[in-house]
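Cross-check.
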Amino acid sequence: MVVLSERAAVRRLHDRLGFGPRAGELDRGFAETRDRLLGGGPDAGAAATPMPDPGPPPDAPGRDPAAKQRARRTTQAQVTQAVGWWLDRMVAADLASVERLTWFWHGHFATGEQKVRSPRLMLAQNRTQREHALGSFTDLARAMVVDPAMLLWLDGNSNKAGKPNENLSREFMELFTLGIGHYTEDDVREAARALTGWTAKRDATGAQLVAKRHDNGVKRILGASADFDAGSFVDLVLGRPDSAAFVTGRLWSRLVSTTPPPPDTLNRLVAAYGSRRDIGALVRAITGEAAFHDSETSLVKQPVEWLAGLLRALGVRPGKLDEKARDQLPAALRGMGQVPFQPPSVGGWAAGGAWLTTSAGVARLHAAQLVAAHADLGVVAKARDKVAAIGDLLGVDAWSDRTRNALAGLAGNARELSTVAACAPEYVVSG
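Predicted model, tokenized:
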């Protein structure tokens, strides 16, 4: 193991708990940076980027093809607005850890607009995930199991007494809280009964529990028998030792390494998570582990993380771009295969080398060109060592000889240099 230098460890904090450093943010020490990122407090940048209200989805247009087309265009415009807003907030936030953990929970409790068909409900879910991003996982899980967008996504409206729908109960245990192998098919069926009665409408703002649709009978779940409802079901599941290990492992895989933590590390992290299921305490503990400071531990940046980090590093605010350029950013993410509010499935997005495809690389290059075209690169253009200057701007500790030689040939054009540097392995991979 090769331990990172202090500056490299600070850069890793910004990469893993945020979206990368802004200019000057690598000058603080590790402890100060971690305390700042995890300490909460006011965030002027986030406060100045309030969530929009896109309004309710358009009314069902019936059989009129023209009306259907107008409704689709309206909904797509609402989706584009939501995606653009969140990307802008990721860039504007002074404490990017909140947005980064909100992004993590969006992928963990993956919910897609393509089925929910209500940008307003997707944004409401986003708000809930942000409120609990570094708080109690219990509170977050309780909110998600009756979240309107989640209910529509996993067929909660079809879950009623006498005819339970098992989609939500299965995914809640398999993907959100326990993992495969820690429950039975009987547990899934009985848990579905506990979740009966909750309904959501696309043009409403919250979910409702319809008493006559809820199963009040005794259910046997995970070896326990009671008249479980949504809240007590969540408490039962999270009380299982397997749950703490599962949640800890998921955070570890996105913040440290796709290689699972060894047993002694896992035990320490589960202890930090504790009976309060404190997400912030768990994240803090993760940053204290040796693997977090190991230079050989790397993660491939997901497209959203990469683009938000590039925008932050080059000082480009999506919300201040002209409409054409602003609308090109969601299109760029689509080209790279990852658009907020549109995960491919309830399992969320892939991790690791899945993002290092030829097509994604071409889309990344085009996105980097777009950002560089709107950046103030004077500090790079005026620098004597322009390759080192763009490295400092992007927060790259050092370029390999191969990358440095490739970038040196572009030193005469700051925008081309920035574009290629943003696509170099040293920036695409968070080392």
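The radius of gyration is 23 Å. The first helix runs from residue 6 to 17. Passed to J.P. for a second look.
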